[in-house]
Amino acid sequence: MAGIYVHIPFCKTKCPYCDFFSVTRRGEESTFINALLGEISLQRNYLHQRKIRTLYFGGGTPSLLHLSHLKLIFDRICAAFNVVGDAEITIECNPDDVTPYFFRELRSIGFNRLSLGIQSFHEEELRVLGRRHTVKQNDLSIQQALQEGFKNISIDLIYGLPGSTSKSWKETLEMAFEYPFKHLSAYHLTIEPGTVFGDRLKKGELEEISEENSVAQFRKLIDYSGSKGFEHYELSSFALPGYYSRHNTGYWKQEPYLGLGPSAHSYNGNTRQWNVSHTRFYTDSLLKGQIPCKWEILTKRDHFNEYLMTRLRTHWGVDLAKISRKFGSGYRDYLLKAARPFLNNQYLKRKGNVLTLTNEGKFISDTIFREIFKEEQ
Ligand code: SF4
Question: Which residue segment(s) compose the domain that 311 sits in?
């Protein structure tokens, strides 16, 4: 089984916190679509005829594309790959782009899961984040999606915003959980260098919230979503039973995937490759029949670190027996030694052969990953 990701690199405006690859120029869509259709054909053997069980349109803002373009891409993928009948087919949508007609047509194309970029239920926070939609549009987008028959809806929320408190975040959660969505992706705001927020932070115009406040908001998220029956199955992902993101679960379980579009990454079990993050280079190259990507062969150590990083994020955790089988007992011994301080301080826990992060460990997951990764000898 495998997954396909399609990166649609267009946005109406650039959100000041965003470091995903996207452009705000318009008028390039048709050329881009031609290039993308070319890439689909050129990459049709990348996954070695594996069955495709998930398809994910992300970005950027896929809901900015014309429906006829979305259908063209979708149909070309279905013609080139063996997409199974019950595949999970997701599209990210921004609340200001959608209408009942748009949702109806998405369903008729074949999309069966939505990821709505809600981000907050506070008008003020949406403005801070530079979002173009209002709380009213958030409400309408969820209502319309439900009315048009989408049963599998995921929403994105952002917490840890400048000026936010545990109380304001709890209010957002309370408003969010009034809707019958099935999956929640909740991200702490990280201020990345090179973004507008990054520049404002450097100039002292923006202040990050305290670590104590961050931890309190994260704890609130875990407790509140848990009280609503949501399982915290990955650091930023919460779902009702049976509604885990199958696409992202594929990444975390090291299943092969193909990424299409500028900046998209692919993994086939042995190599990782990534497309150029530039729309013009991307389209020019594909229109000449060449895939504009770089690639690397993964070493045993890369596979080991990748396994740690993806599995420790999830509630499935790291299986020590699997590490012995796949990498040898030396790697297992190395890991147990590197993990010992975190086990002693209860940031990690061990049950039989499985290591997982504790809730305390989730707060410092980046530090733990850094410390337990195997360095080059
Ligand atoms: S809409 Fe999404 S991808 Fe586009 S700039 Fe905003 S956060 Fe980034």
Answer: 300-372
What is the amino acid identity at position 352?
A: G
Rounded to the nearest whole angstrom, what is the distance from the C-alpha of residue 7 to the centroid of ligand 1? Answer: 12
Residue 263 CB less than 6 A away from ligand 1: no
Q: Is 11 in the pocket of ligand 1 (CB under 6 A)?
A: yes
Residue 357 and residue 224 share a domain:
no
Quickly list H helices, 228-319.
Answer: 246-252, 279-287, 300-312
- Work out the end-to-end distance of the chain between its first and last CA atoms, rounded to an integer number of angstroms: 34
Whether the CB-CB separation of 17 and 69 falls below 8 Å is answered with no
Q: Read off the CATH number of the domain in which 221 is found.
A: 3.20.20.70
Distance of CA 298 to the CA centre of its chain: 22
- Most ligand 1 atoms within 8 A of CB, residue of 21, 26, 61 to mutate: 61
The Å distance, Cα 235 to ligand 1 centre, comes to 21
CA of 11 relative to ligand 1 center, distance in Å: 6
Which residues pair with residue 89 across a beta bridge?
Answer: 55
Check if 22 has its Cβ closer than 6 Å to any atom of ligand 1: yes
pLDDT tens-place values along the chain, 377 residues long = 899 999 999 999 999 999 999 999 888 899 999 999 999 999 999 999 999 999 999 999 999 999 999 999 999 999 999 999 999 999 999 999 999 999 999 999 999 999 999 999 999 999 999 999 999 999 999 999 999 999 999 999 999 999 899 999 999 999 999 999 999 999 999 999 999 999 999 999 999 999 999 999 999 999 999 999 999 999 999 999 999 999 999 999 999 999 999 999 999 999 999 999 999 999 999 999 999 999 999 999 999 999 999 999 999 999 999 999 999 999 999 999 999 999 999 999 999 999 999 999 999 999 999 999 988 76
Close Cβ partners of 341 (under 8 Å, ≥ 6 residues apart): 371
- For ligand 1, is residue 23 a contact (CB within 6 Å)? no
Q: Ligand 1 centroid to 304 CA: how many Å?
A: 32
Nearest CA to 137 out of 117, 111, 152, 162 is that of 117
Asked if residue 198 is part of any domain, the answer here is: yes
Domain co-membership, 97 together with 226? yes
